[in-house]
Amino acid sequence: RAVQSVGEDRRGDGITDASGLGSETQEELSLEAGMEVEVLWEGTWYLATLLEVSADMATCGARYHEGRDEEFAIDVASRIRQPRPPWVKQGLRVEAEWEGNWYAGRVLFASSTGRTATIKFDEESEVESGVDVTARVRPLEGAEEEYLASRIRLEDLRVGQKVRGTVCSIRPFGIFVDVCAQQDGLVPKARASEEFIEDLSWLFSLGDEVDAWVSRVDRRGRLELSMGGSKVRRR
Which chain regions cross the lipid bilayer (predicted)? Predict the structure, then answer.
C-alpha cells in the first residue's frame, strides 16, 4: 500500500452535511451582528457572518463566506446554528480505505473543514495526509465510546480553570483545541489573542500546544475557551 502525502487545508470555510443534525432553537442562541454562524440552505449548512438580527431574534440577515452572497429574513429557529467541529477528531480510532481494503489507524490531525484528515495506520505505522473523510474514512466500532471514556468529563471542568491542549482545527471564527475533554473546546476568534488577528493561521498551526482557560460549558455540551494573550508553544 503506497502512502500519499497531500497538504492539509486548514482555512477552508467548509460545508457540513445537514443529515442527522438538528438545528438550534432560537432560545438557545444569543445572536448579534458580526457573529459567525452556519446557515441551512437546501439541505446543506454554510458558514456565514450575521449582518443583522431582529429584536426578537426570530429572523436575521447573513453574508455567506462562500460566494459572499447575502440573504435576509432568515428564520433563526429552523436555519441558524452555531458552528460545530468536524466529527473526525485527533486521537479517534478509525478505518481508512485504500484500493478497496479498509485499514485500522488513528487520526493525527483533521482539516478545519473536516473533509480531510491525517491518518497513522496501525500497519507499519504508515502515515497518510489529505485522506478524504467522506469517501475513505469511517469510525471503528466502539471507537467513540473508547475515545470518550479516556476523556475528562465536561461536568468536571470549572469556569476559570486553566487547561492545556493541542490545536486540532482552525476555522475563520476561531480555533478548536483538544484539551483531553469529552468535547474539543472552541476559542472564539475574539478570545484567541489580545490583539486583532485577521487570519488565525498566522498565529496558530495544527499541533500547536496552547494554554487556555475555561470560559463556558453549556447544557448542550459545548465547551468554550479563552486564551487572551497566552503564548503558543509549538511541538
Answer: none
